[in-house]
């Protein structure tokens, strides 16, 4: 239900409109595009910028699933009322408020500050909910600027994910491929069980290409990584069986320009172990690091991230235990550096030895955070023993864009819960500019989730 003025208020009963004085425990600022502003704004082609923004802004809807009920979710644009209604019924939400700026480019926090009506609304929410928590997808310069201006008004709120004052630099540093490699190298010197692929930090793509030739000449495949690449953008795999010189397509993509590039040995993965690329997420607060979950990542052959799988029997006890140990070791080092908030460790399990190699970290909430929160909400505290979940953030259902209502109508028989079973589909993203949706499927095991996945695909695909 839209109430105008850059806000939408939702409750479980369509005939009742929650008023401003309702109590909220949290404000979620879902600044998914803003986190990648530096690389998006380097793009020269206007159509490509529009495409990238569509991808990143659509991911903001995942914030609806973070942390539960009684929250205000701030997004770049309004979340569709059908999406809010159906998902609130599934998750048992009663008190959700969605606010958004009238105009948005890349930065959500910047747009919030510039939109007087929305900023004043945000201030009013904080005043009427003293000590409310403010959380975000990623700590950015724009987020810090927004928070600074809220503090000037002597408002009472808390942020548990903010690095220590002299450690704000750790967010970008650890999120970079070079900062991660340097930091893990230092930890590795104290813990010889930690494995990092052989690699080099190169001054630019030209030097990285030369290092790539060196790897290929040694009969090793190689990965080139732009320093701030994400979800497969800024990643190139050079295989040792390729013939001729390295393709120069990277020269045309802005993500490779004016940046450090990492060239490292490609580790061939054991696909039977959670797809070969398990990940562990950690939350760091003043008391230290805490592992939240382990998962398998769904990554295509080019290295692009699609989603996660987590839950019952996703990994052996041995690998789960080692992933959690690695998360605590690295998390402790990050904690000492003053980092606070979420991060994950992406790994590869080597096919030849089952050794776990650390590949990169993401210093923010990740593509599995909302799936973890959904699992806790639907399956309870022992969700890992109760079920299995699979997600996909970029499922293309055809060539023609379907409305939010049509998508939910077509999936009606598959939506969670299917009958009395704790199984079914939760639609997490609907991109209204592209024929793309995101979803999480919950089931009793992997096979049930895959069967539901097949049904979803058949229900949505163009005929």
Radius of gyration: 22 Å
Strand order of the largest sheet: 15-14-11-12-13-16-18-17
User: In whole angstroms, how far apart are the ends?
Assistant: 32 Å
Number of domains: 4
Task: Characterise the protein shown here.
By secondary structure, the protein is α+β, with helices and mostly antiparallel strands. It folds into 4 domains: 7-159, no CATH class; 176-196 and 267-362, 2-Layer Sandwich (D-amino Acid Aminotransferase, Chain A, domain 1), CATH 3.30.470.20; 198-265, Dna Ligase, domain 1, CATH 3.30.1490; 387-463, Alpha-Beta Plaits. Helix content is 32%, strand content 25%. The chain is built from 14 helices and 18 strands. The strands form 3 sheets. It has an 8-stranded antiparallel beta sheet with strand order 15-14-11-12-13-16-18-17, with helices on both faces. Helix 4 (108-114) packs parallel to helix 6. The protein is globular and about 60 Å long. Mean pLDDT is 91; it is low at 1-5 and 10-20.
Summarize the structure.
With 463 residues, this protein is of the alpha+beta class.
Describe this protein with a few key phrases.
4 domains; 463 residues; Dna Ligase, domain 1; six-stranded mixed β-sheet; 32% helix; 14 helices; disordered N terminus; eight-stranded antiparallel β-sheet; single chain; alpha+beta; D-amino Acid Aminotransferase, Chain A, domain 1
């Amino acid at each position: 239900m839209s109430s105008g003025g850059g806000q939408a208020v939702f409750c479980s009963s369509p005939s009742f409109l929650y008023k401003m004085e309702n109590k909220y425990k949290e404000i979620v600022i879902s600044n998914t595009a803003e986190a990648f502003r530096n690389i998006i704004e380097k793009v020269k082609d206007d159509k490509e910028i529009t495409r990238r923004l569509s991808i990143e802004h659509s991911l903001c809807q995942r914030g609806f699933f973070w942390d539960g009920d009684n929250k205000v979710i701030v997004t770049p644009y309004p979340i569709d009322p059908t999406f809010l209604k159906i998902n609130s019924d599934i998750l048992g939400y009663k008190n959700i408020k969605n606010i958004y700026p009238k105009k948005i480019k890349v930065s959500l926090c910047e747009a919030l500050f510039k939109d007087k009506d929305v900023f004043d609304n945000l201030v009013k929410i904080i005043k009427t909910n003293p000590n409310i928590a403010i959380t975000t997808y990623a700590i950015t310069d724009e987020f810090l600027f927004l928070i600074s201006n809220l503090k000037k008004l002597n408002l009472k709120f808390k942020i548990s994910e903010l690095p220590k004052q002299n450690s704000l630099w750790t967010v970008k540093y650890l999120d970079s491929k070079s900062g991660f490699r340097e930091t893990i190298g230092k930890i590795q010197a104290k813990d010889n069980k930690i494995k990092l692929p052989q690699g080099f930090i190169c001054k630019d793509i030209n030097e990285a290409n030369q290092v790539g030739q060196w790897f290929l000449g040694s009969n090793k495949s190689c990965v080139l990584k732009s320093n701030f690449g994400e979800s497969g953008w800024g990643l190139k795999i050079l295989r040792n069986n390729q013939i001729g010189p390295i393709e120069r397509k990277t020269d045309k993509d802005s993500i490779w320009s004016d940046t450090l590039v990492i060239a490292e040995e490609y580790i061939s993965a054991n696909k039977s172990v959670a797809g070969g690329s398990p990940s562990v997420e950690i939350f760091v607060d003043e008391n230290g690091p805490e592992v939240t979950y382990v998962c398998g990542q769904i990554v295509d052959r080019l290295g692009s991230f699609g989603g996660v799988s987590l839950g019952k029997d996703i990994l052996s006890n041995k690998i789960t235990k080692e992933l959690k140990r690695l998360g605590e070791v690295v998390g402790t080092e990050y904690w000492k550096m003053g980092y606070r908030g979420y991060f994950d460790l992406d790994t590869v399990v080597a096919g030849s030895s089952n050794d776990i190699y650390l590949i990169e970290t993401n210093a923010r909430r990740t593509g599995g955070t909302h799936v973890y929160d959904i699992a806790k909400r639907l399956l309870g505290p022992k969700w890992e023993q109760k079920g299995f979940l699979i997600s996909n953030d970029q499922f293309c259902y055809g060539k023609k864009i379907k409305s939010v209502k049509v998508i939910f109508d077509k999936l009606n028989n598959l939506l969670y819960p299917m009958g009395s079973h704790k199984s079914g589909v939760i639609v997490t993203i609907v991109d209204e500019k592209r024929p793309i949706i995101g979803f999480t499927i919950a089931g009793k095991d992997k096979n049930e989730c895959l069967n539901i996945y097949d049904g979803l695909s058949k229900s949505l695909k163009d005929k």
